[in-house]
Amino acid sequence: MWEEPDQPTSTFVWQKKLEKHGLKNLSRKELEALNRRKQQENMIELEKLKKRRQEREHARQQHEDDMCLMQRSKEAAQFDEWQRQEECFHLEQAKLRSKIRIQDGRAKPIDLLAQYISEKSLEESIEMQMHEPYHYLNGLGLDDFEDLLADIRVYNELEKCQNADYWSDLTIIVEDELQKLRKAEAEKQRMAPGRREGIHQSVAKDVTQIFKGKSSSQLEELKRKIEDKIASPQDGLDIGYWESLLSQLKAHMARARLRDRHQENLRNKLELLKQEQEMNIKKEELDEQEAGPSGAGPSRKDEPVDETSRDSSSHSGNEQVKDEENAENDLLHECFELYLKGGYEPKLFSEKDLDPSVELTTEEKVEEDLDQLRQKVLGINQEDDTLSKDELILRKEAKRGMNDDEAEFSVESRVDSQVYLWSDKYRPRKPRYFNRVHTGFEWNKYNQTHYDMDNPPPKIVQGYKFNIFYPDLINKNTTPQYFLTPCADNPDFATLRFHAGPPYEDIAFKIVNREWEFSYKRGFRCQFHNNIFQLWFHFKRYRYRR
């Protein structure tokens, strides 16, 4: 049991512990001093532990901050890369759109201006850079110039100011033309312009004539003189005139810089052409030299050859080639003379001597016709023996998506004899076609009662798909038409007639006369695309109601 000390307020002393550590004989003061020293040591140790913990926390926080900063820098670099790729993508898309518009013949001014500075092959660049770029601005209207300004800003941003001088000069020229058009529009509406022009119309042409034909350095000198005159005004000096002259001078200077750039480009292209021609000439000379020793033999291969002998050998080689060409021409002339003397048939004609109505053929066409005749004899491709390559492609396109519920339909109806005004110019012919009829079961109340899936009802016509081929249509801008006429002898059927124009005759088909479904969601299609006139339709389905 626990024995309480005699005096409750006295300090407890652990005698057993003191005996174990050999401190039993120490006085109370010494024990208190020893305890105080231990407490101080413990406090120092606690301070050290606290300091180490703070250092670890600080190091961990520093590491987290460094990792966060590194992650942010990686994300920023990745974002910059994504932004650069996106800008490159938009630039490539803009160039691709320009290329497509140029190929389709619907190019915008910005397409031609961007094509002028694009990196292309030698032939294409020469073709595109035959004229100064500001010539593409001729004939544009007010809205066209405003759209062009916006397009120039977009291209300049996408290219990261790669051709900043070029686009800056074009911007100055476009703004000048835009200002002229706005002034002309204001004068046309009898409205005063927004600011004083400073130059009368009677002398405007003379001012333009002064600027015309001057180089960029001469215009720069003229600009400096005008600025000096404005900076030091004299009595009677018309400041408005000189300021307006200076504003017009900027546009002429931009044109002059573009003109100098154009001349420099033409000189570079000329140098490239000369280098290419020199390379071709050297290549031909090397080929002739390689062919010359092979024909002469290897007897003089090891002998030293000086410059004069090399020149004489090349000259003799050129003379030998000319002699061979003359010999070939003489042989051909002799053959022609023998042919004329022998009176062979058929006679040799030139294309100028032939009648324009005579149809000329080529060896490839003759070989193709013979191949088709051989296939017809052997029984190969009998179905498509009379179809051309274009018609086979159109037929393949029309067969696409055909399922088991559709069958080929070719029930033609007789068309009344017609006289075409263009028959004396073009030979009338019937168009090719590939038509499909869509059949299926109609599960009305009667059929549901008397039939099932094992014993289905008879199929009925549910729609048609007409594909008429017009590959040689003269006027492709006119869409072919169709006309539906009920049959007089049987109202359950109708005649569907198609009309396109020269050189095709009208063609008609006998179909079921029911009400059509004209909704595109129900499969209706009426279009003329890729030389195929497509008319697809289904019949309306009527639901029985009590």
Strand content bin: 5-15%
Radius of gyration: 48 Å
Share of helical residues: 40-55%
- Number of E strands: 11
Average pLDDT rating? 76
What is the CA–CA distance across the termini?
105 Å
Number of helices: 13
Question: Could you give the order of the helices and strands?
Answer: HHHHHHHHHHHHEEEEHEEEEEEE
How is the biggest beta sheet arranged? 7 strands, antiparallel
> Which structural category fits the helices and strands?
alpha+beta
Uncertain regions spanning at least 5 consecutive residues: 192-196, 294-310, 380-385
User: Which shape, going by the Cα principal axes?
Assistant: extended
Description:
This protein has 546 residues and is of the alpha+beta class. The chain contains 13 helices and eleven strands. The protein has helices at 15-21, 28-103, 109-116, 122-128, 142-158, 164-188, 201-211, 216-231, 239-296, 307-342, 363-378, 389-399, 445-450, and strands at 406-409, 412-413, 432-433, 435-440, 460-469, 481-486, 493-499, 507-512, 516-517, 525-529, 532-539. Strands 1, 3, 4, 5, 9, 10 and 11 form a seven-stranded antiparallel beta sheet that branches. Strand 10 (525-529) and strand 11 (532-539) form a beta hairpin. Helix 5 packs antiparallel against helix 6. The longest helix has 76 residues, at 28-103.
Record keyword descriptors for this entry.
546 residues; alpha+beta; 7-stranded antiparallel β-sheet; 4-stranded antiparallel β-sheet; 11 strands
